[in-house]
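Reopening this ticket.

The earlier resolution said the output was attached, but the attachment link was broken on my side. Pasting everything inline this time so it's all in one place.
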Amino acid sequence: MPKDQRIPHPDDLAALMDGMFYESDEKLIIALDFGTTFSGIAYCFANQRDTKVVAILEWPGAEGESAPKIPTLINYSDADSGEFAWGASVNRMQDNIVGVKLLLDPKQERPLYLPTANVKRTIKSLPKPPIEIAADFIGAVYRHALDEISKVVPHDYFKICQKHFVLSVPAVWSDAAKNATLQAAKIAGIFPVTLIKEPEAAALYTMHSLDFSLNIGDAFVVCDAGGGTVDLISYEVVELSPTLQVKELVPGTGGMAGSLGLNQRFAEAVKNLVGDDQFADLRKTKGFSLAEKSFDREVKRAFKGDQDEEYFVNFPMASLDDDPDLGLEANCWRMTGTDLKAIFAPLITDILRLIDDQVKSVKIKRPGRGVTGIFLVGGFGNSRYLKACVEREYPDIQVLQPTDAWAAIVKGAALSKLPKQASVVATSAPKHYGVEAWKIYNPILDRDVPSEIQRDGSKRALGMTWFINMGDEIQRNQDIKFSFYRSIDEDYTPKDLVFTDTLYECADQHAPRHRSRGNKIGPNCKVTADLRSVSSDRFKRRVDKEGKPYYDVSYDLVVTLKSALMTFSLEVDGVSMGSVQAKFS
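Inline output:
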């Protein structure tokens, strides 16, 4: 492997950036769109006048070809030594690791129209855990970005700039998957790093570029159709001056209807075309790899949806039996508009359903006003056929497809950290969030659920207390307090002041009173609160029904939605103290 392809140990990467932080007020924002199929970097200098967001266009292994993104591929030549090739430098004919991003959220439901995948088997076959592979890729991309940026500014200026890193994540991902992405960046030695939801980044960039034509009250559905996932969030313009400000209108939705599914369905279509026996030999050849590349880079991007369109996909050096009736002759498949519509159909149907859910929800939230426009961004969002389908479905709503839709997310991620540019001021809670606790027993509502007599003699039932409800408008950086109290013996030990609570999430339309009565309810994370540093003067002394003294320890778990992931702190009597550690499920 060439020396410039060797990736340093995270400690070396951290050393590379050591001394670059907080030496001046100059700031360099570096954003990474870590995608399922392609990834890209954009950066900007926050303190420059007329700041512009710039995408990295030069990549190792892609000499002579400028592109804002490189394939999200990695190949370990020797897992023990840690050496690997990544991005455009990977030989596509090798057994490469593809779609490692999706393995960070293995619980994400796969649609029925995609080939089944044994996620546990896939993870077991990897040379490293997915989070470590993601860390290797993220570290490599960020290191390359630092090298490229250092070439365009004076060395001394580059050295004194504070470096702030941003990572985009799907809005529909679980908090556990978002946290795994954050941990991968930390393993790679990238710090300080924040997360941003992909459709949020896309919305900021697209609306910022269109602010000359926006009006307060305009509402847009942003459909970020990428390689693995499709994310949708709707936004309303709340301010134009002095800066553009938008807020989420309804909870984000999405699913795994990304363009990677088109590639998988293309492979299935080829298998149906040539038969199982021929396909088993074909997919081992370079000819099949070239055909896949032709479909991915040319055919699916050019398809407009016309029945009379024709595309020719070659399988060089193959020995396929001719079948003129199906368009297969001389190792070349003449794909028709009908063939391509069959490949696209289930994914298009899924995306239209997701858009429709958002449009209807916005109309309910804004009676009489509805939706101003629909933004299509991301790699799949750049599809002309997808745009035509959406326009046909919504003839009265303008469908916008930015010219740089492919780079909208990464540019928006960088833009989000610039002062006085554009910002999302409020989000809409995607789920209900709460805890399970003892509450006053109700003989009607709490029948057949666990109950017990407490120390104070009251009968209580175990039920849910919901602090955040689905659809709640939450101001960005707003602190939401989850109040807890625990009873401890008078002769407590320091160990008794380390409490663990489970934060639950629920995707049911109506949050249940009891955990057992919810259909889509489960743990979000376990939060460990350490109150050993809290003075006993802050505890309330009580006496139980038998005259035995004990203490009630009251505290607030403070949840803040500063970015795509919830952060936690701890307060006692309104004073921040103690420590909190969250372990996501």
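Reporter confirms the inline version is readable. The chain has a mean pLDDT of 87. Residues 177 and 471 are 22 Å apart (CA to CA).
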